[in-house]
Task: inverse folding
């Protein structure tokens, strides 16, 4: 690095889509001669890719901006992404912020660097900007490949269609070529990602076609899908995933609520009985798979009985990974105008009960891995331990002096998840 080489650091909040986009933008900076430095380090520029899915996400963004300026007081702070798109005026009042770029403009960041005094650049286009994890993204070992953006659904609580626009997609050929590049760069696992990837369609080709093409790449060892809406899961898709021989044993199928009245008010596209059928369908093709679900609790008007219905469904269902969110009112959404908003105390009470249940369920699920061998892709070292995930997206740690980054190793599991330890631990199997 020369003394005059400019530096830039990144921080990404929110979904895997944001992670994929940060990867491509970071690579663009590197190609233009910038050195990428860790977020905590002093740098000329700080680039933040933000989220606005809940109040919590908004306040995390504001805290992050303050933190960035604190550890790198001389840097120019660029804020992009969904929070920037939706709350540019509010952000412009923060003295720490130098440039605000909406979801389309963030890809044009290089053109705006010389005009930082302009401050706000928000546009809403329906172009598809391809993105994927690159080595310039210092944080990720698993590669996120963006195949879709935006959403045509109108879930009552959700701000994302406003923040990201209508659904649009990459072509199957382009996804294949990006995936080839990722495998060539040494990535072993690809996660196909987007806002609503089940709705993928381009020139008559569906997600099944894309999975078949990407899954055929020699050298690709692991394939995952990010969240898939339940109404878009088909037998054809599940068969294509199975036939690839690379799909990992883990699905993420948003639930939100197990009460039909709430699902209807949320404008979700399934009933609870249909959701159950989807889970059965997954289990027919992937009998032992882990299943994650997003759950919103404290939705306006959700009675305690309706909450209990969701709780009981989750208790009995094969869902293993809970992602529980308190309902968060988003300006401009239908649900924000509904009567019966809950106070935070009640939302916290429901969240706590669901999280306790979630902890119990993942402990039970992980217990079956004890004394078994599972394969783990290692991602990072923390202290003396390497951490990674197995196919069922359970976190595994092992003590090792070897450099295990981006290595897939067979691990004999010695201890499973417990109330005090949200991960399994084990040892490397030398001869399996
Ligand atoms: S499917 Fe519903 S919750 Fe998901 S992004 Fe689209 S509108 Fe939002």
Result:
């Amino acid at each position: 690095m020369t003394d005059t080489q400019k530096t830039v650091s990144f921080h990404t909040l929110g979904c895997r889509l944001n992670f994929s986009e940060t990867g491509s933008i970071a690579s663009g900076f590197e190609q233009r001669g910038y050195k990428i430095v860790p977020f905590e380090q002093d740098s000329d520029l700080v680039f933040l890719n933000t989220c606005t899915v809940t109040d919590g996400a908004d306040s995390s963004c504001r805290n992050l901006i303050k933190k960035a300026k604190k550890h790198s007081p001389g840097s120019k702070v660029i804020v992009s992404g969904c929070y920037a798109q939706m709350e540019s005026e509010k952000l412009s009042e923060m003295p720490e912020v130098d440039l605000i770029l909406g979801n389309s403009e963030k890809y044009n960041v290089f053109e705006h660097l010389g005009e930082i005094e302009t401050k706000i650049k928000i546009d809403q286009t329906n172009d598809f900007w391809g993105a994927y994890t690159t080595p310039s993204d210092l944080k990720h070992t698993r590669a996120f490949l963006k195949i879709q953006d935006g959403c045509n659904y109108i879930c009552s609580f959700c701000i994302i269609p406003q923040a990201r626009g209508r659904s649009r997609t990459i072509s199957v050929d382009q996804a294949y070529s990006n995936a080839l590049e990722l495998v060539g760069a040494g990535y072993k696992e690809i996660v196909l990602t987007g806002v609503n990837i089940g709705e993928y369609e381009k020139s008559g080709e569906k997600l099944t076609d894309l999975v078949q093409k990407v899954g055929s790449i020699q050298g690709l060892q692991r394939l995952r899908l990010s969240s898939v809406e339940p109404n878009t899961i088909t037998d054809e898709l599940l068969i294509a995933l199975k036939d690839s021989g690379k799909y990992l044993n883990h699905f993420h199928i948003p639930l939100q609520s197990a009460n039909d009245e709430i699902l209807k008010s949320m404008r979700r596209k399934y009933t609870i009985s249909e959701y159950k059928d989807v889970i059965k369908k997954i289990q027919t093709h992937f009998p032992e798979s882990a299943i994650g679900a997003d759950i919103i609790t404290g939705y306006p008007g959700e009675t305690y009985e309706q909450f209990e219905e969701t709780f009981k469904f989750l208790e009995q269902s094969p869902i293993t990974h809970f992602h529980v969110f308190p309902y968060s009112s988003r300006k401009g959404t239908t649900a924000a105008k509904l009567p019966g908003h809950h106070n935070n105390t009640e939302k916290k009470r429901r969240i706590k009960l669901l999280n306790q249940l979630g902890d119990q369920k993942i402990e039970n699920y992980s217990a079956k891995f004890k004394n078994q061998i599972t394969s783990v892709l290692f991602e990072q070292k923390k202290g003396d331990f390497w951490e990674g995930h197995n196919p069922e997206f359970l976190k595994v740690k092992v003590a090792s002096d070897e450099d295990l980054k981006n290595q897939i190793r067979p691990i004999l599991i010695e201890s499973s998840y417990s109330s005090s330890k949200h991960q399994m631990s084990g040892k490397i199997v030398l001869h399996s």
